[in-house]
Amino acid sequence: MANVLGVGIATLDIINELDHYPTEDSEQRALAQRVELGGNVANSLRILRQFGHPAEFAGVLAEDADGRRIADLMDRYGVDTRHARRVEGHAPTSYITLNRATGSRTIVHYRDLPEFDLGSFMAIDPCRYDWLHFEARACDETAAMLALVRARITDQPISLEVEKDRPDLDQLWSFPDIIFFSAAFARGRGFEEPAAFLREARGWAPQAILVLGWGSGGAWLSRPTDAEPAHVPAQPVDTIIDSIAAGDTLIAGFIHARGGGMGSLESLEFAVRLAERKLGQAGLGGLGPDDPAADPDLLCRLDDLEPVDALGVWPRGQEQSGPGPAPLIVVRDGERVCAWRNVCPHNGSPLSRDHHDFLETRDGERQLRCNVHQAYFRLDDGLCTAGPCEGQRLEAVDLERVGNRVYLADRASRRDEPNSPQAHSPGSPRG
């Protein structure tokens, strides 16, 4: 599986479903309303997680209630937000009117946050990733990030999504290996014929694979060695239910297939079919075989953690109590996995309120650390080795591991499964 870094935007989508599009200065009752994670890169990363790819988000998250909700949704869907820049401000929100009669959507977007910049990006090691995907935003900053990545990586693909025209956009063309264009961008540059647009764009980025989604017209592909662009026609969709994030789905499908070794044209065929599936359903759930939302008992996967790592997680139902510190800490040390309650025995405070800020090296050994009073705990048995509660232990939580998936051990639905390896049950003293 490809370890994917996505640089771009995450929003909170407030979606009202109507039986017809409202006329101006009218009042209309919505048939349904849902609130979802949105944003181009965030959507694509969510879908990639459903196909088992580790996915990390680099962007700006607000510290208000909506921003915390966005972060919690990304965690629920398995998207890692450790590289997000947290700032004060109003979280980006998209107010979406979904017309059930046609499946079309109209979006009113509000955003007043700064863009993710080079300074924030420089804290990330791009060599850790198998694929790096960028939204074309704040083009001066994006160009600097792309140039930095191009100078440091060897053979990892760099892709760029171009949804709309922006100032100084043309400085980005020379960096990516793959560029995804939207039909709206092509039309905005005066093209109504996909092949003609790609022939023009070939002069901008002679080194890149160019992908152009064209809605009901399918998608088009131009490779550097092609004399003419190739076309993947769309297949009929019986009923278009929801077109929100269809383009993001196309991108995720291409990255998944191409990252798995398919050729470019085969990858585009897979991506078009996946986007058609998305059009026939509401939302992004269940597009891939490994959707975290489809497995509500799942705590995390082994590849969500580094070889030595600790991750704050929410068991099913506990995330409904609102934003706050994760109740449990899942610890990985190689193939060994255990869990502790996120409660310091000193005074009951959480060790950390962040999802990842638990580990620190002390005396040459990685240990859990309480951020409040600097108590330290061994990974394997939870014993406090220093601090105000020295000699006490964290409360252990029994886990069950099924392949790459980690669950609480008391899940009745997993007890009778054959060949289910048991995760480590922590808490026993180690001599």
Structural account:
There is one protein chain. The chain is of the alpha/beta class and 431 residues long. It folds into two domains: 289 residues, Ribokinase (UDP-N-acetylmuramoyl-L-alanine:D-glutamate ligase, 3-Layer(aba) Sandwich); 120 residues, Rieske Iron-sulfur Protein (3-layer Sandwich). It is built from nine helices and 25 strands. The strands form six sheets. It has an eight-stranded mixed beta sheet with strand order 4-1-9-10-11-12-13-14, with helices on both faces. The chain has a four-stranded mixed beta sheet with strand order 3-2-7-8. Strand 7 and strand 8 form a beta hairpin. The longest helix is centred in the middle third of the chain and has 16 residues. The chain is globular and about 70 Å long. The two termini are 39 Å apart.
Tag the structure with descriptive keywords.
four-stranded mixed beta sheet; 26% strand; 2 domains; disordered C terminus; UDP-N-acetylmuramoyl-L-alanine:D-glutamate ligase; alpha/beta; Rieske Iron-sulfur Protein; 21% helix
Quick structural overview:
The chain has 431 residues and is of the alpha/beta class. It has helices at residues 40-50, 65-76, 118-121, 139-152, 183-188, 194-204, 246-259, 264-279, 412-415, and strands at residues 4-7, 11-18, 32-38, 55-58, 60-62, 85-87, 93-99, 105-110, 131-135, 158-162, 178-181, 209-213, 219-222, 230-232, 300-301, 308-313, 328-333, 336-341, 359-362, 365-369, 376-377, 384-386, 396-397, 399-402, 405-408.
